[in-house]
């Protein structure tokens, strides 16, 4: 059953025939309560036009009030019987993570939902964070919703600009306008990185997309000890709570408080709560209590090969995978067998896995608190809980060795030696790390599938699972559902069970059809083995792709591991591929490639993929990864070379602040030092895991670059500034060609050396050459701050935030001078790029736009 906007009403009328439980009311026929015109009256709406037009005044107006009759528009409510919705989606967790599906990580909250409802073992994501989340809230494919990649890699094409179009209203907007309370907790990775500042606009923030309340962070991940946290659009700092505060508990506390507030204010108003914890995306930040619990279980002492085997056997015993499922061989070409590791490697890797597992278990525990709060209010029977494990497969972005600092990976350092990592062993998972685990564990946690997050052609990247309960309606407790489903199916399912139609127009804008397929039919025990109604689905991410059709899966061979982000990109990702074919009805784990035996099927499915790709804005396909991170996009600094500030200001996100990477720049601060001297932060961007700071330390001017927490380079004056006015300047001359070289698929212009000079009142006080600079990104969840430092500092040895500036800042001027390519540069790069693939040049080179 494919939902189309115009056909929804007829579909809603057929709910009772589809489901074996009583249907909710139908919004196409208005249901009213009370006396219409009285303050207590309520009504449903037909939902085709949002917001619903104001009704005509139904009272009487005379010249005087005594002879007139007042009339109030009825309060809009959902159809009778529409359930509360708790939509839970965890992060970066593959099929084999939760105990609910055979994993070794205890997830009693998910177990509870599954035991009181249903397990779904054939659920599919997009292979990456915000693309999956865009599909989840819109009911449309990720490219249709502008999220072909994450916003930090967005490009100027409709399928990739990270802007959810106004013709694709979210489930929050639809339910809100139909009388629901709507809230979003945790991760928001669907606000464009270039619209995340306090300058707005806010229409792509949760509160602008129909969610009336937001408590969480904006971006792909967050330091759970010191997150860049928002309530609606206002930054929360300092954090509320005791020492040791952690966002995993903090957001559960806030969600529970919200639900109690709503229940005490208007108990009969149903809610939609999207609950999206940062777990288990890096950094893995559990509390010590949970680390100790998991460490005491010794789950990982035997290594990742045996862990994979143990999970696989558990899955068969639980019956959540077919008994004839096969495991593909361990990928020794990219990951070592456990027995081939050194003692130090094993020690470090066990610690990494314990921290990850503690994070997953901790998050599930806090989810359980939210579920329990709903039960304590007496609302559990009437609440549809959808608990999705992972927005993609387990992440391997830590590389084969893992890392104490994920920001290092995004700057091209993905093979930090174990000996170097061991100095963080005792603090792994604390506020001193931005940690990620070895990809060996990630492979095991994706059991029974292969590969990882980012790999859209492999079930290890797109194969999820979920548990759903609705005690008042779902009676097949503990049942298993094996129908093919995708994230785009969540919205039409919610619409069907609430009896609310997909709108035809929102704010006067005609709406694109819902592209997902409701799976509400599976809630009926009589349909436990019914055929899948979602018959065709494409997948594409970063140039790797697949297409599913009626049990068959055509997919590209993996040609890039997730940690290989900096090499040349496949120039023709549609055709320059080795294609594989799988019959998933007989091969649940995608382990037996039968492409050679079925050339006609391969050709048929490739044609189908192209048709789907054209339909859903997949073209132009682009296999580049790192290059897209530094590609130009329309942030509020675009085209500007000078920035002037005269007041303290904090909280400007990385995507909307001036970038000092791969460029020459100067920072000039005009300050007034009071009697007795001064110290404090003048300007900083980033934090403990990558960034820079310009500050006074015991009166002495300092400029410092924190190079992904591996090295700190400091320029420092020898004398404290005397009272009075001073001008201090840091000037940096970059020696590379900059981001312009990316037009040639060439990374050589990034992260190059440069010379920094610190001046006080025109006099040079320190100069030093940086042999390497950061090529890609600062710590993305830290902001650009003037006059103090929020969250973490760039140098713990010198100061602790907020380190407010005690001098008066009269003026701060930042100038950037980005390299441009000369004709000689272009010729040199053309020569360097004289590479052919299948006889075709990688690029037809043209001078890069400035």
TrEMBL record:
Q: Where is the signal peptide?
A: 1-22
The reply to whether Calcium figures as a keyword in the UniProt entry is: yes
Keywords of the record: Calcium, Hydrolase, Metal-binding, Signal
GO molecular function terms here?
A: hydrolase activity; metal ion binding
Q: Which InterPro entries match?
A: Alkaline_phosphatase_core_sf, Sulfatase, Sulfatase_CS, Sulfatase_N
Q: Where is the Sulfatase N-terminal domain?
A: 83-500
Please note every region of biased composition (Polar residues). Answer: 29-46
- Where are the stretches annotated Disordered? 29-49
Family statement: Belongs to the sulfatase family.
* Protein's UniProt name: Arylsulfatase
Provenance organism: Rhizobium subbaraonis
């Amino acid at each position: 059953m494919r939902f189309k906007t115009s056909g929804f009403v007829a579909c809603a009328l057929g709910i009772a025939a589809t489901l074996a439980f009583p249907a909710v009311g139908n919004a196409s026929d208005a249901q009213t309560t009370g006396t219409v015109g009285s303050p207590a009256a309520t009504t449903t709406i037909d939902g085709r036009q949002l917001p619903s037009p104001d009704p005509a005044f139904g009272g009487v107006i005379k010249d005087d009030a005594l002879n007139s009759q007042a009339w109030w528009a009825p309060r809009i409510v959902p159809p009778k019987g529409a359930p509360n919705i708790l939509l839970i989606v965890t992060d970066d967790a593959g099929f084999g993570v939760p105990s609910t599906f055979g994993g070794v990580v205890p997830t009693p909250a998910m177990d509870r939902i599954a035991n009181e409802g249903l397990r779904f073992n054939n659920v599919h994501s997009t292979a990456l964070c915000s693309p999956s989340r865009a599909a989840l809230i819109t009911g449309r494919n990720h490219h249709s919703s502008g999220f072909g990649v994450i916003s930090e890699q967005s490009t100027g094409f409709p399928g990739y600009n990270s802007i959810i179009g106004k013709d694709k209203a979210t489930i929050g907007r639809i339910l809100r306008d139909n009388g629901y309370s709507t809230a979003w907790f945790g991760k928001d990775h669907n606000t464009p990185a270039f619209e995340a500042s306090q300058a707005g606009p806010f229409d792509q923030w949760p509160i602008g997309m129909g969610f009336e309340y937001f408590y969480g962070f904006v971006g792909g991940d967050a330091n759970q000890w010191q997150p860049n946290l928002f309530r609606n659009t206002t930054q929360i700092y300092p954090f509320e709570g005791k020492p040791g505060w952690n966002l995993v508990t903090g957001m559960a506390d806030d969600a529970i408080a919200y639900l109690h507030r709503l229940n005490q204010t208007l108990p009969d108003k149903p809610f939609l709560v999207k609950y999206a914890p940062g777990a288990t995306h890096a950094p893995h930040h559990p509390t010590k209590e949970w680390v100790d619990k998991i460490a005491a279980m010794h789950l990982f002492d035997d290594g990742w090969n045996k862990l994979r085997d143990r999970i696989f056997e558990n899955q068969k015993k639980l019956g959540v995978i077919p008994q004839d499922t096969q495991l593909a061989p361990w990928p020794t070409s990219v990951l070592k067998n456990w027995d081939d590791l050194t003692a130090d490697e094993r020690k470090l890797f066990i610690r990494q896995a314990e921290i990850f597992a503690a994070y997953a278990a901790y998050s599930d525990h806090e989810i359980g608190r939210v579920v329990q709060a709903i039960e304590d209010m007496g609302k559990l029977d009437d609440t549809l809980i959808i608990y999705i494990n992972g927005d993609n497969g387990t992440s391997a972005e830590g590389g084969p060795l893992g890392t104490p600092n994920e920001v290092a990976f995004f700057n091209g350092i993905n093979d930090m030696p174990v000996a170097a990592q061991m100095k963080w062993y005792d603090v792994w998972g604390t506020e001193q790390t931005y940690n990620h685990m070895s990809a060996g564990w990630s492979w095991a946690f994706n059991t029974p599938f292969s590969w990882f997050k980012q790999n859209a052609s492999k079930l290890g990247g797109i194969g999820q699972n979920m548990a759903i309960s609705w005690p008042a309606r779902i009676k097949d407790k503990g049942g298993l559902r094996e129908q093919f489903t995708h994230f785009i199916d969540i919205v039409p399912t919610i619409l069907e069970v609430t009896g609310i139609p997909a709108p035809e127009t929102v704010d006067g804008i005609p709406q694109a059809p819902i592209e997902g397929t409701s799976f509400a039919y599976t809630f009926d025990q009589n349909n436990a083995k019914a055929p899948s109604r979602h018959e065709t689905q494409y997948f594409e991410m970063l140039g790797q792709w697949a297409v599913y059709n009626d049990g068959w899966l055509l997919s590209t061979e993996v040609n890039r591991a997730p940690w290989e982000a900096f090499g040349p990109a496949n120039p023709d990702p549609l055709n320059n591929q080795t294609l594989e074919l799988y019959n998933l009805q007989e091969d649940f784990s995608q382990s037996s490639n039968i492409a050679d035996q079925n050339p006609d099927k391969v050709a048929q499915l490739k044609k189908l993929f192209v048709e789907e790709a054209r339909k859903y804005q997949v073209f132009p396909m682009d296999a580049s990864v790192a290059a897209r991170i530094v590609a130009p996009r329309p942030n509020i600094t675009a085209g500007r070379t000078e920035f002037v500030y005269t007041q303290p200001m904090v909280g400007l996100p990385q995507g909307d602040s001036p970038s000092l990477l791969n460029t020459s720049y100067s920072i000039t601060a005009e300050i007034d030092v009071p009697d007795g001297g001064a110290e404090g932060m003048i300007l900083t961007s980033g934090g403990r895991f990558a960034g820079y700071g310009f500050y006074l330390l015991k009166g002495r001017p300092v400029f410092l670059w924190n190079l992904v927490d591996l090295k700190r380079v400091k320029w420092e004056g020898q004398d404290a500034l005397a009272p009075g006015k001073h001008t201090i300047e840091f000037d940096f001359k970059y020696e590379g060609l900059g981001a312009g070289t990316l037009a040639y698929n060439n990374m050589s212009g990034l992260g190059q050396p440069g010379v920094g000079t610190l001046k006080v009142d025109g006099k040079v006080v320190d100069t030093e050459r940086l042999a390497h600079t950061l090529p890609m990104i600062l710590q993305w969840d830290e902001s650009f701050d003037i006059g103090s430092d929020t969250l973490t500092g760039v140098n713990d040895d010198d100061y602790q935030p907020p380190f407010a500036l005690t001098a008066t800042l009269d003026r701060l001027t930042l100038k950037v001078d980005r390299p441009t390519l000369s004709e000689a540069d272009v010729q040199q790069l053309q020569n360097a790029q004289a590479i052919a693939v299948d006889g075709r040049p990688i690029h037809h080179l043209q001078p890069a736009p400035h």
